[in-house]
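Need GATA-type domain-containing protein's 3D structure for a figure. Predict it.
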Amino acid sequence: MNAPSSSGAADSESAEVVLTTKRVKTLEREAKEKEKEYADGQHANIIDGIWHCSNCGCPENIAIGRRKGPLGDKSQCGTCGKFWHRHRRPCPVVYNSSTEYHLDLLQKLRQSAVADSSY
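Structure prediction for GATA-type domain-containing protein:
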């Protein structure tokens, strides 16, 4: 006769959910459909011959790196692409392709970093 286990760990290990191949394919298909929905809200990467992030509009001379997004490889700046990689949804930002707008954001970010480090 089997003695009851003193910890619930062994019981939870035996109760693992087994995914069938059909279920795995269904989950993959649903994920791809959701990514396609997010791609609808993205913008063109090339504007006047200059690459811009498809999510926030940051131009290539300001963007720190390029990352994969819902439109494919190198479609987003580093910040938006990192958010996409972690959350599988676009970073909630306002799209603006103006260089001045993004330079102003960078300047404010640097000023706040300097202010935080002075304490």
